[in-house]
From TrEMBL, chain A:
Residues 70-260 form the ABC transmembrane type-1 domain. The keyword Mitochondrion does not apply. The lineage of its organism: Bacteria, Bacillati, Actinomycetota, Actinomycetes, Kitasatosporales. This is Carbohydrate ABC transporter permease. It comes from Streptantibioticus parmotrematis. The chain crosses the membrane at residues 12-30, 74-93, 105-129, 141-161, 182-207, 239-260.
Automatic annotation (TrEMBL), chain B:
It is found in: Cell membrane. Residues 1-10 have a biased composition (Low complexity). It is a multi-pass membrane protein. Residues 1-30 are annotated as: Disordered. This is Sugar ABC transporter permease.
């Protein structure tokens, strides 16, 4: 059955319009980062930075302690994601494969944990960390970021575990594997997409977190989101540098995304489809 | 890869009921204490983390909400109990209830838009040719990956009354009254920009996942529907939606939570203005608590926010838990 | 975001700076250390200054001077952003090792003094040079008769204008009265300059100057520590009407403050006749558009008569020592150093800000902005110096959102004032 010319054209035309809609703000961020100051605030928008400059990128990278912030951000984000994957995987396996008293309560708690309004709980988190003498350290950040992504991770992974055909696992058991071995050899490889999908989500969340690090780590152990805001000063808002910094800040997310992309995108659904 | 796994599970007519009740439970049930305690050991780390890192702060938050905790008390480390006065202040204030209503309507409108637009884009992805699909996917991914803070800054500019591209463009289209239009001067226009931004940020998640879900539905099903003479709408209603129902349920659940909690977007764009007319609950809690340094009051509002969200979602929890029974 | 450029700010180091010759010996505190010279080895003194307050030359010199005085100790000068500074400072003061010395805006000082987080400096006032401080500039640092901070520097808003645009409109001298100003602006507009005067609708500290000049009181003292707002007065109406008129000579937004977008960025484009700003804003504009270098001039906001310029809001910053400081002696000596004639002078010279003693004003010679600004400061005032005033200025500031913007958009001043007063009252009565 051949589609009419119209039937072939409109999806593509719509797709182009949508593409522009979704990409334009990103495009604007990146191009602004290359524009000289006078082109940035301009009544006639400058769409293509003809007189491109790297000055804003230099300003962004030369900010004090930049590389320390990069290291801290990666340390905290990667540790939080890995930690939550381990913790969540154990729980997800139990919930998806075993029946036990309290299972439903646990699921309910996980669903509710998803709703925690972290932005407005900063002061109680702060007081706890302060009273434990753990301010200005990466450890509490890592733990709380882990907690921020844990519910979603459990939720998604359990869909994945459930989606692995039980027969595979059982046949391994029949072959004399222990339950643990069966998990490591059979189930775990099949979970790769789910692990990637959830780690992507976790990465974005932890990478972007701002309110908590602002108040917990005032003197040291700071992360990149604080760097993003420092170009708006009393000397004037350096929008060029802000956008250059934002561009650099987005890069790792995009790289992680492209790296995980194919598996990840399908991954979230597998979890969600399983509901 | 995921597509295949899921496909195996969701493709009907494969003769195996999805998620047959775990027979192994009964079979291995009698293997003794070790096996019986296994699930509890597995969920133990998650429980400990949740109690220590979420439960405890929540409890502290509730405790604070019964106190007068301002800059003075915080610096002096003194505790000043006020009983329920933070709560009675809020519950008897019309500002609070207006904010609640506004938050609920805001959430409903945004989630409806996100789900509708996300579904439409997801279906479109399924229909596109390979190359065009990749292009659109790339666009979605870029929008999704952009940090919220950066996205908000860019939107502020796009809609700036003097230097914004949007006003410039509308004026170019001969809509001259839009030159210099102040998007952040009115409640509705401010909400429109916030909504546009939230939809822009959220649609990719829905669309990409829906598309991935669609690829798991076998082509024969669509073929069969078409043979029966079903149009696009009927196909969606009778094939796509029922199969992906868990996906729609789960995604709507997440979006409701995310939109209701959306703070940065609403606060950074216009700080709840003009005249507080776009304050949603989290923004209100932040302005009262952190902005005015009345942390006790802020804690009370955030506790109420949690209660309201729980109430809103209770129906949802029931559906989701019921689904658990079917697993 | 960045809505609350609290007290002030400073300078555009790069352009205005006349860099100062190498530092001399630590002029300030002669060390009266009880313990031996090694007692402070390995210690670090943490100093918080707000973004823009510490010009590079000054920072380098004072660090060197301090580390010379305390051999083996280090001073760590940390630049803080205005965004979220209140919460940051409050929480920091509650910790066991807070910053030892920190900058706090003059409108905020009573608030923090009342929290008990600031060390009482009454006994050290003389040794800090307090006998020579101009009393009006010290007012914000005193709370309930005690000295909780020390005045550091000040700045006032003056009219920054583009000489070329004014000359093109045939204007040969700067206006001495408000009538002259409006005549000049009309002439500039007639020449096709859209923004003869750029005055955004929520430039709160600029408006405070208008209120002061009109004789409006922001709050009434009802005795017994009770205050009520008083925007609903004919004087305040005059102030906002004048503000509205000035705003109408340009296209500045009525519901934005001077930082969104930065008015200096707008001025930098070279097609704005004038704006009401600080020295660093003018310097920032020149940094963005060097072509303006010789085109920028300054004059004080004129008053109704030619004899005195209009009253202005004196923005300023104080330096304070935290109550919980682990290094009180070092902190005190740092304060002495920073407030010494040498470093006050250097700050004024490099940053173009008004020093805390009039005897040091000579350091502003050659700095066009600084000279005009110091003149304007002789006839200035501040916001009400009561602790709960800090609540009023918390975002969203009711005076800007409920009074200024609505009136500029056409609401009746009296009606808007009633709404704003109600909210200001509400905040003045909030506990701290």
């Amino acid at each position: 059955m051949r589609r009419s010319l119209f039937g072939r054209v409109w999806p593509n035309a719509t797709a182009v319009v949508l593409f522009v809609f979704f990409v334009f703000p990103v495009y604007w961020m990146v191009t602004t980062a290359f524009k000289p100051d006078l082109d940035i605030i301009s009544k006639t928008p400058v769409f293509i930075p003809v007189h491109g400059t790297f000055a804003h990128f230099r300003a962004a990278v030369h900010a004090a302690g930049f590389w320390t912030l990069v290291r801290n951000s990666f340390t905290v984000t990667v540790s939080a994601v890995l930690l939550s994957l381990v913790v969540a995987l154990l729980a997800a396996f139990a919930v998806a494969r075993m029946r036990f008293r309290g299972r439903k309560v646990f699921i309910l708690v996980i669903m509710m944990a998803q709703m925690a309004p972290w932005e407005v709980m900063t002061i109680s988190v702060y007081m706890i960390v302060r009273d434990q003498n753990q301010l200005d350290s990466l450890l509490p950040l890592t733990l709380f970021y882990m907690m921020m992504v844990l519910p979603f991770t459990v939720w998604t992974l359990r869909g994945f575990v459930a989606a692995v055909p039980k027969e595979l696992e059982e046949s391994a058991l029949v072959d004399g594997c222990t339950r643990f071995q069966a998990f490591v050899r059979i189930v775990f490889p099949l979970l790769a997409p789910g692990l990637m999908a959830t780690s992507l989500f976790g990465f974005i969340t932890a990478w972007n977190e701002f309110p908590l690090v602002l108040i917990l780590n005032k003197n040291s152990a700071q992360t990149l989101p604080l760097w993003l805001t420092q170009f708006q000063t009393n000397f004037g808002d350096d929008w060029g540098a802000t956008m250059a910094a934002s561009t650099l800040f987005t890069l790792p997310v995009i790289i992680v995304f492209l790296f995980l992309q194919r598996r990840a995108v399908g991954g979230l659904t597998a979890g969600a489809v399983k509901g | 890869m995921a597509a295949q796994t899921t496909g195996a599970r969701t493709r009907p007519g494969r003769g195996r009921a999805p998620d047959a009740p775990p027979a192994d439970h009964a079979r291995r049930g009698g293997r003794g204490l070790g096996a019986r305690s296994a699930p509890y050991l597995l969920i133990l780390p998650a429980c400990v983390a949740t109690i220590a890192l979420l439960g405890y702060p929540l409890v502290r938050n509730v405790i604070i909400s019964f106190q007068d905790l301002n800059a003075f008390q915080l610096i002096q480390h003194t505790t000043q109990w006020t009983g329920f006065s933070n709560y009675t202040d809020q519950l008897s204030s019309s500002t609070f209830w207006h904010t609640v209503l506004r938050s609920v309507l805001f959430t409903l409108a945004n989630v409806a838009l996100i789900m509708a637009a996300g579904t439409a884009v997801g279906l479109l992805l399924n229909r596109l040719g390979k190359r065009m699909r990749l292009v659109l996917q790339l666009g979605l991914v870029l929008a999704w990956a952009m940090p919220v803070v950066a996205g908000t800054t860019v939107y502020q500019w796009l809609f700036d009354s003097q230097y914004g591209v949007v006003n410039w463009f509308l004026a170019k289209l001969d809509w001259h009254s839009m030159a210099g239009y102040n998007w952040f001067g009115h409640q509705f226009s401010t909400f429109s920009v916030i909504t546009l931004m939230i939809v822009w940020q959220s649609v990719p998640f829905v669309a990409l996942n829906l598309y991935a879900g669609l690829t798991t539905i076998s082509a024969e099903l669509f073929e069969a529907a078409r043979m029966d003479g079903a149009g696009a709408w009927r196909t969606f209603g009778s094939v796509t939606f029922p199969i992906l129902k868990p996906f729609f349920l789960g995604t709507t659940f997440l979006e409701v939570i995310w939109v209701f909690k959306a703070f940065t977007q609403v606060y950074a764009l216009n700080a709840g203005g003009p005249e507080g007319s776009t304050e949603t609950l989290p923004v209100y809690a932040f302005i009262e608590g952190v902005g005015n340094q009345h942390y006790g009051m802020g804690a009370a509002i955030s506790t109420l926010t949690i209660v309201i969200l729980l109430a809103l979602m209770s129906y949802y929890f029931r559906i989701m838990l019921k689904q658990e029974d079917d697993l | 975001m960045g809505k609350r450029r609290a007290a002030i700010a400073v300078l555009g180091a790069a352009v205005m700076a006349v860099s100062v010759a190498a530092c001399g010996s630590g002029g300030g505190g002669s060390s009266d250390k009880a313990s031996g010279p090694d007692a402070f080895k390995g210690k670090t003194l943490t100093v918080w200054v707000m973004s823009g307050s510490n010009p590079p030359g000054w920072t380098k010199d004072i660090t060197a001077a301090f580390e010379k005085q305390y051999t083996g100790a280090k001073v760590d000068i940390k630049v803080q952003q205005w965004d979220g500074i209140q919460q940051k400072l409050t929480t920091a003061l509650s910790e066991s090792s807070p910053p030892d010395v920190f900058e706090v805006g003059n409108t905020q000082t009573p608030y923090y003094a009342a929290t008990g987080g600031l060390k009482d400096l009454s006994g050290d006032k003389s040794s800090l040079g307090g006998d020579a401080w101009a009393p009006s500039m010290n007012a914000s640092a005193v709370y309930q008769g005690k000295q909780y901070a020390a005045p550091w520097y000040f700045a006032t808003r003056v009219v920054v204008y583009n000489k070329k645009i004014w000359a093109n409109a045939g204007i040969t001298s700067t206006p001495k009265t408000q009538d002259d100003l409006f005549k000049d602006l009309a002439a500039i507009k007639a020449k096709g300059t859209q923004d003869a005067f750029y005055l955004p609708g929520q430039d709160w500290y600029a408006f405070d100057g208008f209120l002061l000049d009109a004789g409006a009181d922001l709050v009434k003292d009802n005795g017994g520590g009770k205050y009520t707002a008083d925007l609903d007065s004919p004087q305040a109406a005059n102030a906002i009407n004048l503000y509205k008129k000035l705003n109408s000579y340009g296209t500045a937004p009525k519901d934005k403050d001077e930082a969104t977008p930065q008015q200096s960025d707008v001025f930098a484009k070279g097609d704005v006749g004038a704006f009401l700003g600080l020295g660093w804003e003018a310097a920032g504009a020149i940094a963005k558009n060097p072509a303006l270098k010789n085109e920028v001039g300054y004059f004080p906001m004129p008053g109704t008569s030619a004899t005195t310029p209009a009253k202005v809001f004196i923005g300023g910053s104080n330096l304070a020592i935290s109550q919980n400081s682990k290094n009180p002696q070092m902190a005190e000596d740092f304060l002495k150093l920073a407030l010494s004639d040498q470093f006050e002078g250097e700050l004024a010279k490099e940053g173009g800000v008004i020093p805390n003693k009039t005897s040091l004003d000579s350091n502003l010679a050659g700095n066009d902005y600084g000279t005009v600004s110091a003149t304007a400061a002789t006839n200035g005032g501040t916001t009400p110096l009561i602790p709960t005033w800090g609540n009023v200025e918390n975002a969203p500031n009711p005076i800007t959102t409920l009074f200024m913007t609505p009136v500029l958009q056409g609401q009746d001043p009296a009606a808007a004032a009633k709404k704003a007063d109600a909210e200001v009252d509400n905040r003045l009565n909030q506990k701290q």
